[in-house]
Task: structure prediction
Amino acid sequence: MCEVERPREKLLKRGASALSDGELLAIFIVSGVEGCSALESAQRLLVEAGGSLSALASMDRKRIMSVPGVAEGRTAMLLAAFELGRRYVGEEYRYEKTPVTSARQVYLHMISRMKGLEHEECWVLLLNRSRFIIDSVKVSVGCGDATVIDSKTIVRLALDRKASYVILVHNHPSGFPVPGQADIRETESLSEALCVCGLTLMDHVVVCDDSYYSFDSEEVSRSPFSSSP
Result:
């Protein structure tokens, strides 16, 4: 490969946006091994992940290291880069100082934590009287495509933090955000439990990588990051 087309030199000359996903990954791999360049190793990584950066970010490190040229040190750099990306998105769309008024804000607040997960997680956002976020708390981790919504735990958390409003958030790894009957029943149960204590369930947002569903508006919306129409 001529020098100007090498990923690192190309980035410095033309900017990171000019590079393909494989070229960006090759920069972290740094150098290849006999019979396999850094760029070829990067392309193999993408093939392992089905061409998806989200899948690669959640891939087991041993599987990453099974690709020729991606040793332990390179794997550590890749995992660190993905974690920095998650934190950047979380920092960029932090709404603690802004009143939460829409499911879109909730999605932006939570997507850095939930993108690419292969299991369900249930979180609650606790809001004060002005609808500012006091805290974001993970309340349960599910196995595959199910998780538990524990109303007692959530009510206790809200009362302890002196919250006025609660927003429930969980993800669907399937990529289909429409809630099932169990989601609907548990949402109604939580709403009733909070109401008894003078608290309000403001919304329940089901998050997928490229879409989300709001119980409040009863509709599916596309992710603002999605390239789909």
